[in-house]
Design brief:
Beta-lactam/transpept-like, Beta-lactam-related, about 375 residues, globular, Beta-lactamase family protein, 3-stranded antiparallel β-sheet, alpha+beta, Diverse_Enzym_Activities, 7-stranded antiparallel β-sheet, Beta-lactamase
Length: about 375
Amino acid sequence: MTGFPLPQSDLSAAGLRAEQIDRLVALIERHIAEGRYPGAQIAIARHGSLALFRTFGNATLDRPADDRTLWLLYSNTKVVTAAALWVLAERGLFRFTDRVSDHVPAFARNGKRDVTVLQLLTHRGGFPNAVVPQKAWEDHALLKETVCDFSLEWTPGSKLAYHGLSAHWTAAVLIEALTGQDFREVIRETVIAPLGLQNELMVGLPKAAMARTADMHEPAEDGVRPIAENNTPAWKKAGLPGAGGYATARAMAALYQMMVNGGALGGTRLLAPRTLSYAIRNWTGDMVDEYMGMPMHRGIGPHLRGTTEGIRGLGGFASPRTFGHGGVGSSYCWGDPDSGVSFAYLTNCRIPDPWHSLRLDLVSNFVHSAII
């Protein structure tokens, strides 16, 4: 694993309290010993260097994980897809205040004409439960028809409710309309490859990379069991834009380093600071996300900590400007522009709340309390 864009450092040089990171490591080791999840990977970066990268446990029930293992990101993928749209907007292909139907005219069906890209990506589009069938994963003409046929559940902009898959399938159709290319290739060309992360961050896996993946699991009476539908070649290849990316933890920490560093990573500038300032802004105030049951302070991709009493995944101790995203029941990645720290925590078991959110608060707070 050579040529990674972040040079190796250590906790001391990065200004991180080793005793707090030791507590984090012990917590993860205890989780694995208890059978909570087969394996995990974490990475911490600061000021353009990788301070910690560590792999734990197994990728599958019978195969150890290693530093090359690719972990299913679930909804962490949403930030990767959003980043491609940030780049396309900076290139002048569209504006976030545009209507989706300005670029995909058929999307106007069923009352959706006035849904803006900003509403779409901040989970105010009005169709949180719309479904794309598996047969449309590779048939993108069918994908476009399916998305354009989505029906509204409420007036766009009037509510905030997490669109688990529907918004980012729509974003994929928008990307293809803007570029004339497969959305997976656009994400690779605009974000992943320029940052030098193409071997460790993928939305749509090539066949050669599939053997590196960790299986995703769920709790069972006798421990954990694989989630069959999330471990198939078809799932891995599809690269669901809101749920199907794969990465190493250090690749996600590097992606967030780019964001906390104002759009640059390892000498490569991907975006302007003002573009990021626009994208990673609290566009929804303290509106309660009806799915999450709390204010989520949505940006165009990540969400922010804000100053509410609680927040999902980012850690209660986080600076109000800390931003990030999670993967359902399994993971969280975030960046803190006030300290320059980025962090990725990836596991391979989808565990329901309340345990999931409680452990995320502990995990993230160990990192926040390590920052000097």
